[in-house]
Write a structure and sequence with these properties.
- By secondary structure, the protein is an alpha+beta fold.
- The chain has a domain of 154 residues.
- Helix 7 runs antiparallel to helix 8, helix 9 runs antiparallel to helix 10 and helix 10 packs antiparallel against helix 11.
- The chain is globular.
- The structure holds iron/sulfur cluster.
- The site of iron/sulfur cluster has 12 residues, from helix 15.
């Protein structure tokens, strides 16, 4: 499907078109309510760059995000409300008609921009409600243009997404099949996707050199196609492979690009992942203070989008780096926060994280070897996004100098890296998902804009594996645990 001629779509008089809008983007501002404590509010609405276009029954649609913002200088109460609601990561924008606004609240990403194909007709809300009866909101933007919120991202009939994966499909087999199919069809974007996914699978199996040999050609294809979003995703994963190879300087360059790109796209979901990567590379460069700062920023964004799994992981990563700085009390407090959150999420990790934290608190040793970074991935837990982080963290651990075994920060690292091995034991708390529920999860992922066909770009998990584990959940709440 082709992108509509955004400039030709007429807007209602109150709607302002952002000057950055071009033929690939539509970004508009809508007055969003009256004075709130003296400050006028606006809503910034934009289509997702390179989002899929679906056309059905004369209606076109593509994914959209919205941000609410409040005019600066709206009186004392308005300024106070703005500060209270804004938090540190809020951005300011120039309004197309002049003036500055500051983001309030969180970005929504479950919207669609919907337009009527026929320029001689007018679109009304009834037609939208007939098509999307469960929509949370329908907001007119022009005679042929609406924002619709609370719906899934569209797929065109020609791009209806992969069918739900068969029960016995391993990520490796699916990745290899996708690569063979893409090459047979000469489909370069699909080939880049398959190479990337396979590279990450191989990295999860502990083979960074082969991973690099898959990710680098994927990057070359993305550049050849001029697909900058894809390029940034590959660079982030290539950076993780470089971390496995103990090349933090190269990893840092790749992560910096990943972060800059996420920010230029105002993509909070990608930005929080890139910030976690920056924290990991800071830790590898023996800069625990820098790592703490990056993890704190990532934590703020993870909380802002409700990604509890990443929040818990980041709290534990903070605990490790606080322990590195010998801030024992802070490390214990942060570790307890992580465990409390894992417990609330029903994650079995809570049990053994608690045991390792107790050893750390009591100054004890653990004489088990640190779980290996390399090795064959044996279960679904090996293909969760966190398993790559665990591999990197394990690789950062210096060999224990005390003959009694691992102590101090190493104990907290062991808890993270133990997840892979613990999951292989019956009774460790990992439960499998009933088949019907698993299929429903896979169906949701198959229509999600963050799904590559095999992998969730937000949490880094391979959904054929993630969907099997009952306690897992979608990082942005599209399917519950
Ligand atoms: S888990 Fe699935 S539905 Fe949720 S964000 Fe990832 S791909 Fe999308």
């Amino acid at each position: 499907m082709t992108v509509p001629a955004w400039r030709d779509l007429v807007l209602d008089p109150a709607i302002l078109r952002e000057s950055d809008s071009d033929d690939s983007r539509l970004i508009v501002w809508r007055p969003a309510g009256g004075d709130n404590g003296g400050a006028r509010e606006w809503e910034r609405i934009g289509n997702v760059a390179r989002g899929e276009i679906a056309v059905s029954d004369g209606l076109g649609s593509t994914a959209a995000t919205t941000i609410r913002a409040r005019e600066a200088g709206g009186g004392l109460i308005g300024r106070l409300l703005g500060r209270l609601g804004a938090g540190k990561a809020r951005r300011t924008y120039e309004l197309p008609g002049g003036g500055t606004v500051e983001q309030v609240g969180e970005r929504t990403s479950d919207g669609l921009i919907v337009w009527l194909e026929d320029p001689s007709e007018t679109l009304d809300e009834d037609r939208i409600r007939t098509r999307w009866p469960d929509a949370r909101r329908c907001q007119r933007l022009g005679p042929r243009l609406f924002l619709v919120e609370g719906v899934s991202t569209p797929r065109s009939s020609s791009a209806s997404g992969p069918p739900p994966e068969p029960d016995d499909a391993s990520p490796r087999k699916l990745g290899e099949a996708a690569l063979t199919a893409a090459r047979a069809k000469g489909d370069r974007p699909a080939e880049a996707t398959a190479l990337t996914d396979l590279g990450i699978i191989v990295l999860s199996e502990g083979d960074p050199r082969t991973a690099v040999s898959l990710l680098e050609p994927a990057l070359a294809i993305a550049r050849e196609l001029g697909e900058v979003d894809r390029e940034a995703d590959i660079m982030g994963n290539l950076g993780m492979a470089m971390m496995y190879l103990q090349q933090p300087d190269r990893a840092l360059q790749l992560f910096e690009h990943e972060l800059a790109h996420a920010r230029s796209r105002e993509n909070v979901l990608a930005e929080k992942v890139a910030m976690e990567h920056m924290g990991l590379v800071s830790a590898m460069r023996r800069n625990p203070r820098g790592a703490l700062e990056w993890f704190a920023q990532a934590l703020e964004l993870a909380r802002s989008v409700g990604d509890k799994q990443q929040e818990a992981n980041l709290l534990w990563l903070q605990a490790i780096n606080l322990a590195e700085l010998d801030r024992r009390d802070d490390a214990i407090a942060r570790g307890q926060e992580a465990i409390a959150l894992f417990t609330r999420l029903g994650k079995p990790q809570a049990g053994w994280y608690g045991a390792y934290l107790q050893k750390y608190r009591m100054g004890l040793f653990d004489n088990e070897p640190m779980p290996a970074v390399t090795g064959v991935a044996r279960g679904p837990e090996s293909f969760l996004g966190g398993s790559l982080t665990a591999g990197v963290v394990a690789a950062q651990a210096p060999a224990p100098t005390n003959p009694k075994g691992t102590t101090g920060p190493g104990l907290l690292r062991m808890a993270l890296t133990a997840t892979k091995s613990m999951a292989q034991f019956a009774g460790s708390g990992f439960k499998t998902t009933p088949p019907e529920l698993r299929q429903r999860r896979l169906q949701v992922c198959s229509t999600c804009e963050h799904h590559t066909g095999l992998r969730c770009k937000i949490c880094g998990c391979f959904t054929s594996a993630k969907s099997r584990l009952l306690q897992e959940s979608c990082p942005i709440g599209k399917w519950p645990g």
